[in-house]
Amino acid sequence: MITVSAPGKIHLMGEHAVVYGKPAIIAAINKRLTVTIEEGKNTSVGYVADIIKIVQKHFQIQKEFHIAIDSDIPQGYHLGSSAAVAVGVVAAASYYLKKVWNPTLFNQLAYEAEKLKHGNPSGGDNTTVTMGGYIWYRKELEFLKSIWQLPFKPKLNRFFLIDTGKPQESTRDMVAYVASHKKQELFDVNEVQTKRIAVALKENDEKTLIDAMQKGERTLEGMGVVSEKAKRIIRNIEDDGGAAKILGGGGRKAGVGYLLCYTKQKQKGFISITLGEEGVRLENR
């Protein structure tokens, strides 16, 4: 029996813009899923079955096995649940079939799975789930990606999640919407704020972090991926001296999943979150 765990993730900034060659800062979080594989009949369907086929094709092995997934990462809330499933299943299946533990390979195969799921993903989610920590990610070309794990451990830690309700739209829907309403100037401003956040994390500059999160959120609103419900919550946080932003795809009609909030004072309903957690991990062998 093989057990692997993988974390969820959040975007500090750069979602949507990262699809168009702009940088993103993404962090692994302290919500994980486990994938367990043992001998038995393969009853997988849907996304998991597709991931298994990718692994089997890569290794040219058709051996069956039973797979079980237990997750603390809610689906559809933009915390990287599909990326965690992709990386976790790829890693567990690779180790079960070939005793291979190669995170670079896991990331490559998980990206192929994510393309089946989301259409045109950046690859940043699966990269962060694989590597863990804080990732600076830029997709230069389909075959060329700049990936840096931040070489310092940020001390700013007043991050929380706020549940706005599951979006009615999928990430694929939102990516397609942005593609049909592209505004290059918003991507450019988003890049500036992403860089400011990186500097703020390095220098433990809370004031700059809050300002950059607020301005970056405005670019996401300009892209049309932030619902009116979410905007009202975000403005309330800003009025109290903090910042909040959507995560991942966002949503237009009602909920946007979780918001990422940075504030000096935790409020009722806020969910504490730890950033910079470990990436994919072999739990037993």
Give structural notes.
There is one protein chain. By secondary structure, the chain is α+β, with helices and mostly antiparallel strands. It is built from 8 helices and 10 strands. A hairpin with a 2-residue loop joins strand 4 (134-141) and strand 5 (144-149). It is globular and about 55 Å long. The mean pLDDT is 94.
Q: Which CATH class of the largest domain is shown? A: Alpha Beta
Q: How many alpha or pi helices?
A: 8
Main sheet: strands, sense, barrel: 6 strands, antiparallel
Please identify, by name, the CATH architecture of the largest domain: 2-Layer Sandwich
The N- and C-terminal alpha carbons lie at a distance of: 7 Å
Question: What is the structure about, briefly put?
Answer:
This protein has helices at residues 46-59, 81-98, 103-118, 124-131, 171-180, 184-203, 206-222, 228-239; strands spanning 2-13, 24-38, 66-71, 134-141, 144-149, 159-163, 243-246, 258-262, 271-272, 281-284. It has 285 residues and is α+β, with helices and mostly antiparallel strands.
List the helices and strands and how they pair.
Blueprint: E1 2-13, E2 24-38, H1 46-59, E3 66-71, H2 81-98, H3 103-118, H4 124-131, E4 134-141, E5 144-149, E6 159-163, H5 171-180, H6 184-203, H7 206-222, H8 228-239, E7 243-246, E8 258-262, E9 271-272, E10 281-284
Antiparallel strand pairs: 1-2, 1-10, 2-3, 2-4, 4-5, 6-8, 6-9, 7-8
Helix pairs in contact: 1-2, 1-3, 2-3, 2-4, 3-4, 6-7
